[in-house]
Amino acid sequence: MKKIIITIDGYSSCGKSTLAKQLARQLDYVYIDSGAMYRAITFYFIQNQVSWSDPAAVKEALQNIHLEFEYDETNEGQASIYLNGENVEHLIRDMLVAEKVSEVAAVKEVREFAVAQQQQMGEKKGIVMDGRDIGTTVFPKAELKIFMTADTAIRVERRFKELYAKNKSITIQEVKENLELRDYIDSNREISPLRKAADAIILDNSQLSMEEQLQLALQWVEDAMMVQSS
Ligand code: CDP
Ligand code: CDP
């Protein structure tokens, strides 16, 4: 069976990475979390006090950033992101990074840097990548594009549960404001804004269990593979 490219875009915390990991496991494909790349770059910028409003400073800083995904058995059997050789998977998920990542991800030089690497990762196909612009900009010719969404209150609840498990001082209001702000910046930025690709299938999983969303998506994978081989 020929391998395909599957893209999953959508709003924050609606279950994109959950579905992408499910599909990668089921199909024995590579899963790439493109958001982790923007988060790792943001983490580096914060740590090294890089001013992302200054294009020259951004360009120089990007020359010192090396990102890699490597298998990590502590990360649900999926690859984790390494920043200059250090596994930063668990350092990039907190609010400090979440508060700044959408600003950093709107910077032209940052997007060019990340998109070029993402396109290289898909050269051999057999990949599931989730993010905001994967079906529109990174892989406009992907065989299967999914655009995920879910009610805001449900998305806030899902992300709050995750963050609260690690940090009991976090409030639901804080999580809601961050989600809404990121969705707004991501949808309204000039370069590669979050948009549904014309040929993407919408998946609203507000009322779906993880098993139900997987079964739906697997049917779409089967359809996309039939189209490809016909
Ligand atoms: O998991 P969550 O939906 O909270 O976000 P993420 O996928 O980790 O992405 C973090 C941020 O990176 C997003 O809010 C976007 O600002 C940015 N991003 C992007 O601009 N383009 C992508 N392909 C992926 C993420
Ligand atoms: O990648 P994205 O930010 O879109 O979301 P995620 O990290 O995959 O999912 C956010 C949370 O929603 C996780 O804790 C998932 O377990 C949960 N989830 C859920 O409860 N039901 C679904 N159908 C999908 C995800």
TrEMBL record:
SUPFAM superfamilies named among the record's database cross-references: P-loop containing nucleoside triphosphate hydrolases (SSF52540)
The entry's keywords: ATP-binding, Cytoplasm, Kinase, Nucleotide-binding, Transferase
Taxonomy, superkingdom: Bacteria
The protein's Enzyme Commission number: 2.7.4.25
Catalytic activity: dCMP + ATP = dCDP + ADP; CMP + ATP = CDP + ADP
Gene Ontology MF annotations: ATP binding; CMP kinase activity; dCMP kinase activity
Pfam families listed in its UniProt record: Cytidylate_kin (PF02224)
GO cellular component labels: cytosol
Gene3D superfamilies: P-loop containing nucleotide triphosphate hydrolases
PANTHER family, A to Z: CYTIDYLATE KINASE, CYTIDYLATE KINASE/PANTOATE-BETA-ALANINE LIGASE
Protein's UniProt name: Cytidylate kinase
Organism, as annotated: Chitinophaga rupis
